Amino acid sequence: SRSSGVLPHAWKFTNVLSDFSGYFDIVVNCACPHWSEFSPEEIVDIESKLLTQLDRLAADGTTKIHTSGVCLFGNASHNDLKEFRL
């Protein structure tokens, strides 16, 4: 089931990249809540690397959402995310 692809926050992203390459029909990039700690150049570097990784996980025609995370999921639990439907 696709809900098995929802990973707890503690998982290392790199461990699952190849297993789920081209698998997801929706990917969500929740921005870092503490960007004030980084320079604009560092933010671009971090985000571009992350988006490249997320693109590898996306199937053809995938919906991609970039958000602060709070407005979309609030205080969602791991189970809430597994049940999320667009």
What is the gist of this entry?
This is NAD(P)-dependent oxidoreductase. The chain has about 90 residues and is an alpha+beta fold.
Report on the architecture of this protein.
- There is one protein chain.
- The protein has a two-stranded parallel ribbon with strand order 1-2.
- It is α+β, with helices and mostly antiparallel strands and 86 residues long.
- It has one domain (2-83).
- It is 33% helix and 20% strand.
- It has helices at 40-57, 70-73, 78-83, and strands spanning 24-30, 58-67.
- The protein has three helices and two strands.
- Residues 6-11 have low confidence and may be disordered.
Feature tags:
globular, two-stranded parallel ribbon, alpha+beta, 3 helices, NAD(P)-dependent oxidoreductase, 86 residues, 20% strand
Count structural domains. 1
Low-confidence stretches: 6-11
- In whole angstroms, the N-to-C terminal distance is 16 Å
Q: What structural class should be given to the helix and strand makeup? A: alpha+beta
Give the overall pLDDT as a whole number: 72
Specify the biggest β-sheet: 2 strands, parallel
Major β-sheet strand ordering: 1-2
Radius of gyration: 13 Å
Helix content: 25-40%
Strand content: 15-25%
- Count the strands? 2
Judging from the principal axes of the Cα atoms, what is the shape? globular
Task: Sketch the topology as an H/E string, one letter per element.
Answer: EHEHH
